[in-house]
């Protein structure tokens, strides 16, 4: 970029009689010209360093960065956006209510991973909500209006048009899990089917014969996969696959689990084990078991899915399937930043492994 093409900056503060500058609020901040003079280079060179151009010698880059650090220069973000066509900001869209967000232990781990990776990428995060039953038109317009460089979505359900609309509009997007019926896009998930199968196999190997499930929503691939993994585990041990052993929760939260657990205990007959498709669903099953005078693990073995902090502090501590939530968040952010930079040569899907964490409930 030629020096004349660099974005305009504010003028330096007027000099005092001794030649020193005065810093005032709103004026006198170090500018591109100040940095250029301090580093002994042209204004355009400073602009190229700030914008990450490779067309700068390393010793020159080092001099400019040293001048920036010494002067405390902060680039004009609006001007930088005009040059790079990037905002250095990505959005995390949660398609549930705010109440769900703060009560869902799975999300906390994912968010930690996202923020840690974005810090390494020098990217900012904007968190926003898009409940399925709300008006999304303003949010869609904002996300498609070049206010963010890309979007991550958590807890997407089948039939949600937002992921495809963003993809069609050229907005890079990465999903946490894949909604049922959605055409393939970039997403990160754990091996839900294998993890559920491991849980049921563990119960079967302990001698349990009547194993029920509190399943998650069937408009989410995670719900479908964990139910299929449950059935895989039963078939692998020649145990009955009966519909009355399945209770469908409306969500993965504890409130949904209480309703589903009561239904399961009412309709399944005698059970000696339950696999719950999330830790909150398992905690709900514990509560309902106590209501019915059923003791865990003496009368009923119980396994959850998540390995959230809830699992360790429940009474009894919960055997569960560990999924690496922080790694999932990191991978989402890493993959999205790669898409923003146009690095799409690698795989756009990351599936992470799971393992059983044995505690007292099973």
From TrEMBL:
Domain HTH lacI-type residue range list: 30-84
Classification via InterPro entries: HTH_LacI (IPR000843), LacI/GalR-like_sensor (IPR046335), Lambda_DNA-bd_dom_sf (IPR010982), Peripla_BP_I (IPR028082)
Entry superkingdom: Bacteria
UniProt-recorded Gene Ontology molecular function terms: DNA-binding transcription factor activity; transcription cis-regulatory region binding
Region (Disordered), start-end ranges: 1-30
Pfam families linked to this entry: LacI, Peripla_BP_3
Keywords of the record: DNA-binding, Transcription, Transcription regulation
Full protein name: LacI family transcriptional regulator
Organism: Glycomyces buryatensis
